[in-house]
Amino acid sequence: MKQIFKKLGILSLFSLVFILNGCISVNTDHVSKFNHSNDTWWKPKNNADITWQWQLSGDIDTTLDVDMYDVDLFDTSKATIDSLHEKDKIVTCYFSAGSLEYGSDRPDEIILTTIHPNVIGNTLENWEKERWLDITNKEVWDVMENRIALAKEKGCDAVEPDNINAFEVDDDEPMENPIEDTDGYTTGFSITYKQQLNYNRFLASTAHKYNLSIALKNDVYQVVDLVNPSAPNKQDAFDWALNEMCYQYSTEDYDECSYYDVFDKANKAVFGVEYNGYINSFCSNANEKGRYWLKKNLSLDKWQKSCLEY
User: Fold this and answer.
1) 219-240 per-position pLDDT tens digit
2) Containing domain of residue 168, as a range?
3) Structurally, how many domains does the chain consist of?
């Protein structure tokens, strides 16, 4: 698993009233820079030299000369998002779509543990205070729509839902990666490939309902089913990708980064980060493919190096 920080939240009463009244407005002034085809949400393209920053810890450094910021949905204030928009930045908001943090100050913890405890599963590998959620349960779907609606209320241009590959943990996928091993961990719900696919399509459709762009986070085995622009319901297609460590996880016999060729062929952007290794070892390949890669600290603080500088 390749998760970093997972944050959960719940929709405010104000947000619920706002949505029920049908007062969802779309401010695309700061989106126009990359809105090449007059889309209602941001659809970044590959080979467009898009610069970006991914910061989920520490005070957000808003001074970087980049095109897009990826920040935490719950820890980042609307004022900070507004200030980034004033600088003509795209703002992507991160949240976990597949897990619950215990001992956090997230309102979802109280609601899920007291009202819907049946949707809480096993502990995530390497994350002792984090538990999987049953993504087949419509109560979880409702919580996730609330989070996406909150992103809309705060002014996010895009969302980046994490932990959307639970089926891999339950071993319902073609395990082509010889490195990846769940070491006996399961979600507790026996999530299948098809169930994950349905859930991820729900996330994409919901984001688009709120005129938000959405990234496919990791989940490389389902790329071909979630990106195809000729799919029957294009509302379900993800707009861009965000990967962690596909270069590190690749070997002579297994190229994890190659899954994103589908995005390239669809002219959709692929963003990525590596936490280990020399930046020269992956930048040339990422740049050649027109993808947007960073070297980052594992804590996802403000430090970064962009492959576009190499």
Assistant:
1) 999 999 998 756 666 667 899 9
2) 13-21+33-309
3) 1
